[in-house]
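so my prof wants the structure for this chain in the tokens format not the other one, which i didnt know existed until like an hour ago. anyway here's the sequence
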Amino acid sequence: MGCVSNEQKRPVDQDDTTVDTTQRRRMPASVTIVSVCVLLEAVAVFAAAIFAAQAIAQSSPVSIGGRIFLMVLLVLVAVWQGVVASKHMAGRAWTRSAVVAWQLFQVIVSIYYISNAPAVGDWAGLALGLGMLVVGGVALVTVFSPATRAWLEPDDAPR
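here's what i got, hopefully its the right format
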């Protein structure tokens, strides 16, 4: 008598190639939303690093060393956010703390922009603050959704 398996296999192509679907889990939309938010933030920080690089040659009260430090710091933060976003999609549990810390920081900074922009007539600053608040708030709320928490739980199933 042979062993009976409960594995479900579905055809991929017209030939006999099959893929085992019992071991793969489908990534929830909430994980994609959080990862996209973090990637958008990484692009924004990288753009800030480009602006900081352009400002190195300009006259400023900040020393050249301080301007170079800021540029390098912004590049490192952008790279770090890219790593966090990719590992979050891969289901690494440690990414939750990195996402929460960055989103809280972003929400705090956005409130500064929102509260100061109308007083000085800086409507671009207000738009920036509102954008930061929306993206940070969405990511912060979504990272605690049940589907995201289940995706980040450690287990042996490949993702």
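also thought this was worth mentioning. The CA atoms of residues 34 and 139 lie 5 Å apart.
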